[in-house]
């Protein structure tokens, strides 16, 4: 297991949709261990595989002291009638937080390392995390979801900081 370096905005791996996990081998098992160890730090809520340079559909979370992961997640439900518009940040866009509209509740389904079905769901922070990490696997970063004016401000700040 290893704590892996986080890829930063501008790295093409973050904009490339991830491939499904087709074989659960030692490489995938090591990836999950690295995702869990890397997300298990103060201030980290979630981590997608492409954020550590691996283009496979896998992410981990660390919400309220609960660590978890899912392979080949599908976002199957997002509340359409309840939203949250709180500050959101990203390890790949360090130290920049912007109000990002997300569904209050989200549910993903995927598999674990034994190929068994996994369901991860939650409200508020967990719901936000599931949506955020799923977006990463699609090649999206949270700033893509910002309104036009806020996105322009975020991109200007990213350039100013040299991120």
Supply database-style keywords.
163 residues; alpha+beta; Peptide Deformylase; five-stranded antiparallel sheet; 26% helix; Peptide_deformylase_sf; EC 3.5.1.88; peptide deformylase activity
Report on this model:
Strands 1-2-3-8-9 form a five-stranded antiparallel beta sheet. It is of the alpha+beta class and 163 residues long. A hairpin with a 5-residue loop joins strand 8 and strand 9. The protein starts with 25 loop residues before the first helix and ends with a helix. The protein has one domain: Alpha-Beta Complex (Peptide Deformylase). The longest helix has 14 residues. The mean pLDDT is 96. The chain is globular. It contains three helices and nine strands.
Number of helices: 3
Helices and strands, in order, run as HEEEEEEEEEHH
CATH-level-2 architecture: Alpha-Beta Complex
What is the subunit arrangement here? single chain
Helical content stands at 25-40%
Please summarize the sheet with the most strands: 5 strands, antiparallel
Query: Strands across the major sheet, in which order?
Result: 1-2-3-8-9
Q: CATH superfamily, called what?
A: Peptide deformylase
Quote the beta fraction.
25-35%
| The CATH top-level class label | Alpha Beta
Low-pLDDT stretches = none
For the terminal residues, how far apart are their CA atoms? 28 Å
């Amino acid at each position: 297991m290893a704590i892996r370096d986080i890829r930063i905005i501008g790295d093409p791996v973050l904009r490339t949709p991830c491939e499904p996990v087709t074989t659960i081998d030692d490489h995938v098992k090591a990836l999950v261990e690295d995702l869990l160890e890397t997300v298990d730090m103060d201030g980290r809520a979630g981590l997608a595989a492409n954020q550590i340079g691996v283009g496979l559909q896998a992410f981990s979370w660390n919400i309220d002291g609960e660590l978890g992961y899912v392979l080949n997640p599908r976002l199957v439900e997002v509340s359409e009638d309840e939203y949250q518009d709180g500050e959101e940040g990203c390890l790949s866009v360090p130290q920049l937080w912007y109000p990002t509209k997300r569904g209050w509740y989200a549910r993903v389904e995927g598999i674990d390392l034994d190929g068994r079905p996994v369901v991860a769901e939650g409200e508020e922070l967990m719901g936000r995390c599931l949506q955020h990490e799923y977006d990463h696997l699609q090649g999206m970063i949270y700033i893509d979801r910002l309104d036009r004016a806020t996105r322009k401000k975020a991109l200007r700040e990213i350039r100013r900081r040299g991120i």
